[in-house]
Amino acid sequence: MEKKSRLLTIGQFAALHGINKKTLMWYDEIGLFHPAAIHPENGYRYYSYHQSSILETILLLRELDVPIDEIQAFMKNRSAASMEQLLQEKIEDLDRDLAHLKGVRKTLMYHRQNMLTLLTMDLSEISIVEKKERSLVTVDVSRDTSFDKLVELITDETKKYQLRRLHDASYGTMISVESLYNGQFEDYSKMFIEIPFPIKKTGLHIQPAGKYVRAFYKENGENAVNCYRKIFDYAAKHGFTLSGFCYEVIINENVIDKMEDALVQIEIPVKQKSGR
């Protein structure tokens, strides 16, 4: 107990808390945190060990980016109630930041997987992949939807979910399998946006879990038609039926300069025909 009652120099007290002594001098000058004593002759500042908890509270609030004026107001009227309220607000802020960071990580993983696909897969082959269920925000479109209108629709949807930028989410287009079988290969009905964090909203499109046929084509109409016809042949040969919607995404858009170099990934739900 005797050691705790001794006064510490400003250098010792700063070192104890891992900060620069100039920080303590500044806190004193603005009236936020005063030393326990000032030498009457040389003006040296001295601090008590018992002041440590107060300083640590200030440092915690600074680490949480609480403005100085708010800390000053809080320190003048400290209480359990005001401390609880302040900490609750900061916990909610941190939860929002963590949710955003998780979303950013998910988006980065999505783009990285696309790059691995480009580097490691035989993009000329058709394959079967297993996918988990996804909840997608969708925007209705048609072949008459102009590019400007499409951009407007996407922008409006991303703003609803407070995304900081467009590429915080992954997005693509949807075309019904019925349209494909009818030869209407450009009859896109929806644009989908996958928000990278859990959302609660009615009317979301549920992309079902299960097996999907996956294929790729270079961005032009003729390549798309040929690719879909190959998928039809593949499905018939292996006893699959296509169902629901086809989901198209461009997997190399962040490494190309021209849209004609875009590589489109196709994924369509498939089921094994009975008796196979």
What features would you describe in this structure?
By secondary structure, this protein is an alpha+beta fold. The chain is 43% helix and 23% strand. It is built from 9 helices and 12 strands. It has helices at 2-5, 10-16, 21-29, 52-63, 68-76, 80-120, 147-160, 177-181, 221-238, and strands at residues 7-9, 37-38, 45-48, 127-131, 134-140, 170-176, 190-194, 205-207, 210-218, 240-242, 245-250, 263-272. The strands form 2 sheets. Strands 4, 5, 6, 7, 8, 9, 10, 11 and 12 form a 9-stranded antiparallel β-sheet that branches. A 3-stranded antiparallel β-sheet has the order 1-3-2. Strand 2 (37-38) and strand 3 (45-48) form a beta hairpin. Helix 2 (10-16) crosses helix 3 (21-29). The longest helix has 41 residues, at 80-120. The chain is elongated and about 95 Å long. The chain starts with a helix and ends with a strand.
